[in-house]
Amino acid sequence: MAGGQLRTSLLLTIATVCLSWSANAQADTDPYTAVVLRNANGVQADILPIGGTIHRLLVPDANGKADDIVLGFDDAKTYQRGNSPYFGGIVGRVANRIANGSFVVDGQRYTTDKNDRGNTLHGGFNPFFENNTWTIEEASNKEVRLSLLSPDGTQGFPGNLNVTATYTLSDDNTLQLVMEATTDKTTPVNLAQHSYFNLNGQARDTVLNHVVYINGLYVTPTDLNQIPNGELAAVKGSPFDFTHPHSIGERIGAVTFPPPFGGYDHNWALFGLGTDAASKTFDGVVSEEPKLAASVYSTLSGRAMDLSTNAPGLQFYSGNNLNGSLAGKGAYLYPQHGGFAMESQVWPDFVNKPSFPQSILSPGQLYRHIWSLKFYNHTAAPAPGVQTASIP
């Protein structure tokens, strides 16, 4: 499909099989009661209507023992109390940063919430997508479809944005999220799933032992406030080169920017995209279907996951700002590097960088971003993205 072409929405009509009526009816009225997705292999995902949040994600290790691999809180209400550093939720309208909280669309300048050093981060103050209750449209033990209306003017963004988020758990151990949006007024859109992972499980180790592969040749350098300067930096020969697998902790000490903590918190240009990225993307994506963007495995547990997406960028964050002061599940104080996030998305500040991939949604168009995780057991050093042993 050519860039800028209108796309027709493929509406998801779900035959609800094996409905858990009691749980789902309760979740329909209670934002803090999860819809539980399960498969035949012991993988389980608990999805909260509040924020469209992945509250728990149980995945077996190399010995078949299932454990929760996402950071968060035992009490679901805590996600809405302003304590969460975006644990598990869907962020938007525009994930990542907008310089000076300002942009121009159709000749009109808009000003958005400045909640991050004079810039807009993940939409602004009181994150709308995370702090509101999504409506459960359909639910089963395999799939849940949620919807949310972001009214015109929310956090400064134009247009009424109608969003759906569909989580599906399959028996090949894939948890997929499809985020779709339509608008009645031209507006930027960049939705992202913001879970923090620790593939060790709740063993309370850091993620520095996790081995990472990223399918990207460039990162987007930033200023001190993490606003891209519009250039691309080749990763080859640097601590940002994950085209061959490396552990997170192996070279993190050499990543001293951004201050004050350093560590990984950068956007990778995926799939070989470079200076021609804007011409190779359409409607905020590079393809209709997802492609392998990253692989991660824990040397401790043997858990591994492949992240696939159709988005042009990946923000890899190594939990630098966690500092042992935030009490999470089991009252555990999450330490620095206690989790990592991999947010597939459009590049930061794209609204002010015409050379970057664009995601400006107009009436009649469909925004469709896919974020997909496939879990498996790592029993040997595989080629990136190649399974070595399926979860039994």
TrEMBL record:
* Active site: residue positions: H194 (proton donor), E343 (proton acceptor)
Signal keyword on record:
yes
Q: What pathway is it annotated to?
A: Carbohydrate metabolism; hexose metabolism
- Its EC number(s): 5.1.3.3
Q: Note the Pfam families from the entry.
A: Aldose_epim (PF01263)
Which enzyme class, named as a word?
A: isomerase
Keywords associated with the record: Carbohydrate metabolism, Isomerase, Signal
Q: Please give the PANTHER family that the UniProt record associates with this protein.
A: ALDOSE-1-EPIMERASE (PTHR10091), GALACTOSE MUTAROTASE (PTHR10091:SF0)
What is the protein's name according to its record? Aldose 1-epimerase
Name the source organism.
Pseudococcomyxa simplex
